[in-house]
Amino acid sequence: MRLSAIGDVCHAAAMVNRIQRHWPDAEITWVIGKVEYQLVKLIPNVRFIIFDKSQGKVAVETLQQAVKGEVFDALLMMQVALRANLASRVIKARKRIGFDWGRSKELHWLFANKRIEAHKHAHVLDGFMDFADALGVPQVEAPSWHIPVSQEDENWGNTKAAELGDYVVIAPAASKAERNWLPERYASIANHIHAKGKKVVLCGGPGELDKKTSQAIITQSAEIFADFTGQTSLHQLLMLLKHAQLVIAPDTGPAHMATTVGTPVIGLYAHSNPRRTGPYNNIEQTVSVYDSCIREQKGKPWEALPWGARAKGKHLMEKISFQAVAQKVDETLN
């Protein structure tokens, strides 16, 4: 059971892939959010149950009806939110595996009868892999992803890649405005990339914040070749990210989607620890001011604080300089 969000669903998909690789006959049911389902819906041999949290009690009743009469060998409770914990009560399972004490929140521990092993300073993806460990699934050297798309969407991606040539994607909008970098600095980076002979395209979801963020960058006289914000499905976006030479993004879903298709990512972080939530294969390529921000606010280094502690403030992303990001761009593209 992992309902949201896009980045976390990408991490969960790696765990599902691990189970399928070693236990190909396992029957897997995934309770998932409505939007997130659109990304992973074509993963083979997985039965999906959509949980639309906007429906409130009706969503729980729909879930209850979908699993009526079933008793699962194990329920992986991979979401600590109280809403998910309460909904999980309608699922009957012999083992109800939840997070360890250190990662349990919102009374999560009350709904589980078994817990994964404690894992100090674990990336979210590694934390999800701990659930596979609890099941006894053989370990892997590195996570892998298999998130299929339709032939139509694959063709769409190939066509766009041919039209664009060498290009870099900027996915500028996080879920909250305070986690976004400054539009003028995004524009400066776009111009820096353009000067290196690469096209720059913007992408994002259909939400108002995504559209406003992209438009604010364009109005800064940025060298933007195309703006795909709000114009793609999740599978089309995945293909757009797949063919890019590089993705630049704050703590947002497209950064993790790019990781699943092997595209390098430069993550921009201030509020959350990139060691925990950064693009899994490119932690060293992140540009982060988190360490200094959290020390300034808490008076302690991140190592001495609860794992997952967030820095707060509307202007923290301003501490990320153009020069720091440009250096990472040069290193990656060269």
Automatic annotation (TrEMBL):
Record-linked InterPro entries: Glyco_trans_9, LPS_LOS_Heptosyltrfase
Molecular function (Gene Ontology), one example: ADP-heptose-lipopolysaccharide heptosyltransferase activity
CDD domains assigned to the protein according to its UniProt record, in alphabetical order: GT9_LPS_heptosyltransferase
A cellular component term, taken from the record's GO annotations: cytosol
Keyword vocabulary terms for this entry: Glycosyltransferase, Transferase
Swiss-Prot/TrEMBL GO biological process terms: lipopolysaccharide core region biosynthetic process
Entry keyword Amino-acid biosynthesis: no
A Pfam family hit: Glyco_transf_9
Keyword hit for Glycosyltransferase: yes
PANTHER family: LIPOPOLYSACCHARIDE CORE HEPTOSYLTRANSFERASE OPSX (PTHR30160:SF21), TETRAACYLDISACCHARIDE 4'-KINASE-RELATED (PTHR30160)
Name by which UniProt lists this protein: ADP-heptose--LPS heptosyltransferase I
Source organism: Alteromonas profundi
